[in-house]
Amino acid sequence: QAGNIGIHYTRSKDKKTTWVFLSDFPEEKITLPGFAFTNQSIVTMPGSNKRLSWKRKGDQVEMTVPAGMKQLTNYVWVLKVKQP
Question: Measured between alpha carbons, how far is 52 from 18 in angstroms, rounded to an integer?
């Protein structure tokens, strides 16, 4: 986890979608627990069609959210982790 960013999670009942809520925009790489990620996981931010790249580091996942995505909201940034 980068800095003091608050990170919260929720998962759909079918466990195919995990929502990651970031209370502050990550200005650098963030590290997330890898529980919701498989090799086929697709990570997006609602409001953008762009897929975010990520890589597994042990039992965690590391990613960088592009700076241009900061303008999508002023309050909470949401990542959608979709399983096939």
Answer: 14
For residue 35, pLDDT over 80 is answered with: no
Contacts made by residues 33-41, CB under 8 angstroms, sequence distance 24+: 33/59, 33/60, 33/61, 34/58, 34/59, 34/60, 34/61, 36/9, 36/11, 36/81, 36/83, 37/61, 37/81, 38/83, 38/84, 40/83, 40/84, 41/81, 41/82, 41/83
**Model-level pTM?**
0.86
Count CB-CB contacts under 10 A for residue 84: 8
